[in-house]
Amino acid sequence: MKLVTFQHPHRREPRLGIVYGEYVIDGNMAYTVLLSEEGEEDPDVLANALLPSNMISFLRRGRRAFEAAERVLFKARSFINMSYGEGLVYELSKVHLYAPIPRPGKIIHTAGNFREHAKEAEKAKWEFPIPQWISFLKSPTAVIGPYDNIVYPKYTKELDYELEMAIVIGKRGKYITKERAFDYVAGFMVFNDITARDIQRQEMKNGLLNFGKNLDTFAPLGPYLVTKDEVSNPHNLKMELRVNGEVRQSGNTNRLSVTLQEIIEHYSWVMLEPGDIITTGTISGVAAFRENPEKYYLKPGDLVESEIESLGVMRNPVVAE
Length: 321
Description:
Residues 106-319 form the Fumarylacetoacetase-like C-terminal domain. By secondary structure, the protein is of the alpha+beta class. It has nine helices and 18 strands.
């Protein structure tokens, strides 16, 4: 399944959506209708319990929520054709998409897992090494949707991009072994780790990595949460980031020097909760490590397209603060 969080056109509130072709189905409302048709006495109560209208609650419900969503998806064509389908189904292109998880519990950002990225940093004489297993927390308040604006802050002149894959945790767990790691995964998303390099450089002189990665709008996520059953091999997905149509980053998850399972195992020394996100780190091609990097840093007016095979494309304009 492809799951989204969309703005309900009438209620003007975020709702969990199930994608079916060019349509998005309001999962909670559709399941209410389905239960009502089956004679359930309190269909809205049961629907709220089994298929909630927000993503975090949905993930917390676990297996039964996914089973309910599958039932809705199975009847998707019927919902589209229903005379009373208004309010249940919308054209995907005509609704606003938030990040699939608009406010994650925590984002554990990792780095150094694509060794080509570390090598390009050495070649560019980046002041700080990029060893394996670097990690830091990305602020949930930096999260924006797949088509929202990236705000170019007045405090930087070196705004950079980093295409990554996001692993979405679907089950609570700690000290998870790599053999069982995917039992705790709900799915995957596209992620762009926007970075103010000049701020990052100053912070890292003191051994810190904070605001350079965490200013407002520095975490585009989406466009979908693609459930793990939809991704045949997450270790072999093409990755590409484009700025104004020009390819800036191109790679594949098969270039990871560690597995996704090992990443989950490594960082599960902290309790992982449904809706938490762990990122993979970026591929090579960032602006900071190119010759004449000032030519490649993002500027107001740019359009950043972040794409991962099977997971979709985000298109985020860059605007001045």
